[in-house]
Amino acid sequence: MSSIKEVSLRRATVADAEAIAAVRVEAWQTTYRDMIPDTYLDQMRVEDSFLHWKQILQALPAAGDRVCVYVAESEGHIIGFASGMLLPEAKFGMQAELTAIYLRPAWQRSGIGRRMVQKVARTLQAQGAESLLVWVISGNAIARNFYEELGGVLLHEQAFSWDGMDLKEVGYGWRDLSVLMASVNAMPTSSSVH
């Protein structure tokens, strides 16, 4: 983890699109080695992800709190982000979904990811969600352990296609968001997150 201690969480704005894209690309290129072909990871570009995130962030005001994106920031630099949404209809009994969560590798295992999950879950809970779903590539043992430590229950495993690649993913869920909140609050954190 970085030696910088102060981290703040705030809602993302359109101006954050490039930084969010950079975090996503860096996280994919380090996290998904040996799960996704190196040729795909090596060809990932911030510019491609930037346009995607710019569109998402531009659409946020119309979505209200049904969709949310938060960034983790330290000394003016975005070090991570998380997003979530209420589902139009329940999947596996879950009413909302954690759609993305990424941290720069130097900041992983510092407690920031747990706080970002909690921030997204609280926002969606305030919109009426009582449950939360998240999908993860099945070979990503670190992420799977993270969700299990937070009390996530394995719900489903399935094949899916991403940019022409055949992959497997697993879905974890919390049927009661208060269980997730209690898990986050019970774990020690090693950085100062506001």
Automatic annotation (TrEMBL):
Keyword Transferase: yes
InterPro entries in alphabetical order: Acyl_CoA_acyltransferase (IPR016181), Bact_Acetyltransf (IPR050832), GNAT_dom (IPR000182)
GO molecular function, one term: acyltransferase activity, transferring groups other than amino-acyl groups
Entry keyword annotation includes Transferase: yes
Keywords, sorted A to Z: Acyltransferase, Transferase
Location of the N-acetyltransferase domain: 7-186
Protein name in UniProt: GNAT family N-acetyltransferase
Species this chain originates from: Undibacterium jejuense
Taxonomic lineage: Bacteria, Pseudomonadati, Pseudomonadota, Betaproteobacteria, Burkholderiales
